[in-house]
Amino acid sequence: MSEAPRDPMRAAQANMRPATIKRFYRTVDVGEATGGQHALTLDGRGARTPGRNLLAAKSRALMLKVAAEWERQRETIEPADMPLTRLLNSAVDGVSRTMAETRADVLKYAGSDLLCYRAEEPEALAERQAEAFDPVLHWAAERLGARFRLGAGVTHVEQPPESIEAIRTAIEDFDDPVGLAALSVMTTLSGSALLALAIARGRLSPEEAWRAAHVDEDFQAERWGADGEARARREARWREFEAAALAASASG
Questions:
Q1: Which of 6, 77, 138, 224 has a CA 20 to 30 Å removed from the CA of 20?
Q2: Is 72 contained in some domain?
Q3: Which of 81, 110, 131 is the last residue of a domain?
Q4: What is the pTM of this model?
Q5: pLDDT exceeds cutoff 80 at 16
Q6: 214 within some domain
């Protein structure tokens, strides 16, 4: 028997039915729910997550964006066109029950953050990395109290315990499952807890962070050409990243 996935968001997403689903509703709306939450309604009834929980969040603005995803579906429902809904499903069914574990997973990235590992050559790549990464590291030092050491290549660099503790404190501020789920998704897709925190704190736009996370990839594409399949995968990841950034902003 195969082992269940550890990542609660992946586990929740795996429950999304892969078969084609016909649009089964006519009207979409957002109504008030208990606990100061706002819930998606389909034909006047509260929509449910794959785990049969109410599809709801504290932010009405976020739920209106979720409602727009459901409204634009045509004869069939396309889950790939509903990144906010998938994120909310993950937050409600998974992260809400594993807040401590999700925070710990995000913190692990800070211990080997993308921004701390630099190319020694070619010089042009090293310069691009410094231009994209250094401002975020300076921000983390000044605003979060976290100073990070840099390393060359892929050799692991042990970060100061006080810096890791400062990042832990920043992550602890995310006490809403939706906001924490969004932080986790941005961290995983970018390889950087610092980039994710910079977006959530308003230091970087999603586009700026996404470009920073792909400095190496873009540099190689300029030299050797871009692969069509890789580009399509990146575009799909960007839609997930953009949705997470929107959710983080709405939950902040």
A1: 6
A2: yes
A3: 81
A4: 0.90
A5: no
A6: yes
CB distance 193 to 103 below 8 Å? no
Distance in angstroms (rounded) separating the CA atoms of residues 84 and 28: 15
Both 47 and 153 in a single domain? Answer: no
- Tell me the CB-side half-sphere exposure of residue 129, using CA atoms within 13 A: 20
- Asked if 90 contacts 181 with a C-beta cutoff of 8 angstroms, the reply is yes
Bridge partners (DSSP) of residue 40 are 30
Is the separation of the CB atoms in 103 and 189 below 8 Å? Answer: no
Q: Are residues 55 and 110 in the same domain?
A: no
Same domain, 241 and 125: yes
What pLDDT digit, counting tens, does each position of 155-196 carry? 899 999 999 999 999 999 999 999 999 999 999 999 999 999
Indicate whether 252 pLDDT > 50: yes
CB 92 within 8 A of CB 111: no
